[in-house]
Amino acid sequence: MSGRGVAVALLGPLEVRRDDVQIRLTAGRLRTLLATLAISAGDTVPVERLALALWGEELPLNARRGVQTYVARLRRALGRDVIRTLSDGYLLDVDPDRIDVLRFRRLLAEAGRASGTLAERALVEEALALWRGSPFEGVDSDWLCASASAYLQEARLGAVERRIDLDMAEGRHGELVAELMELSGRHPLREPLWERLLVALGRSGRQAEALACYERLRRLLAEELGTAPSADLRRVHASLLREEPPPDLRSPTGVRQPHARVAVFTGRAADLTQADRERFAGVRVIVGRDGGHHSFLALIWAHE
User: Fold this and answer.
1) In angstroms, rounded to a whole number, what is the distance separating the alpha carbons of residues 236 and 200?
2) Residue 286: per-residue pLDDT
3) Average pLDDT over the chain, rounded to whole?
4) How far is the C-alpha of 152 from the C-alpha of 299, rounded, in Å?
5) Tens-digit pLDDT profile for residues 164-191
6) CB 15 within 8 A of CB 136
7) 236 neighbors 194 (Cβ within 8 angstroms)
8) Nearest-angstrom CA–CA distance, 27 and 50
9) Could you give the CA distance from residue 225 to residue 189 in angstroms, rounded to a whole number?
């Protein structure tokens, strides 16, 4: 492998090193080009995809020539041996394990295969420890934000939920309440987090707080999406009303990574139609505010 010694960190502010010496890329499109190549290190990235990441839909007249120019500049910064030219695109010739995004995905895949063993927790925690902030900080690319960043954020939340499940299996419900309150506050429409919060509160003897949380979520879902809580949340709610310990979570075992197909919507919540929700099998919707009170960003994909 030619690019031995090169490391790229994207799970937070962009960091690039070669032989432990930091390399600073000040040009925005150079940073975007490197990030796009890095998330596919070891695989060929077509020129068309690189152009889309660099310029979005407003491509220059000669996008291929423009990509060549930026590749030449990136080679001067990293070393000519780091980027290979192939017939249909370019390849970052770097050990994938030295790209934190790819290492994160590998660790989650290993954790999934190690489900139910002592190794699973260590792998999940090692994967989560790679995160230093939001993905691709300092990289300005709508394409990366709408595809790779959304995928990674979902994978991270899935890993956090799995780590929480492992903690709950050890009876650490009370210790998790504060973390789950913070997470549900940052992701107010992510129902799996609320389900875990309700279970943690109920199993800690805090039924009244759990019922209040459920009512807050019910109103939020009705106002923002025009929907009701999921069947699993209603099941937990029913047990709380009966003053019984909430049932165990019926979450899948092991870490599951989302499929890479992503659809992006912006506008009012009413713009997200039922047909949109059913576009993929096993649909899952992630919603967050994007500006005004009624704005949202919805990302939909199917689990593998």
Assistant:
1) 11
2) 41
3) 84
4) 12
5) 999 999 999 999 999 999 999 999 999 9
6) no
7) no
8) 16
9) 9
Task: Give backbone dihedrals phi and psi of 159, rounded to 5 degrees, phi first.
Answer: -70, -40
Angle between helices 150-169 and 118-128 (to 10 degrees): 140
Identify residue 28 by its one-letter amino acid code. G
Helices 100-113 and 150-169 cross at an angle (nearest 10°) of: 40
Let me know if 48 is exposed, middle or buried by CB neighbors in 10 A (0-12, 13-18, 19+). middle
**Residue 74 structure tokens:** 């990136």
For residues 257 and 302, what is the distance between their CA atoms, to the nearest angstrom?
A: 10
Q: Distance between CA 19 and CA 11 in Å, rounded?
A: 20
Helix (H, G, I), strand (E, B), or coil: what is residue 272? Answer: coil
H helix runs in the chain, sequence order: 28-38, 47-55, 63-78, 100-113, 118-128, 142-144, 150-169, 173-186, 191-203, 207-224, 231-241, 274-277
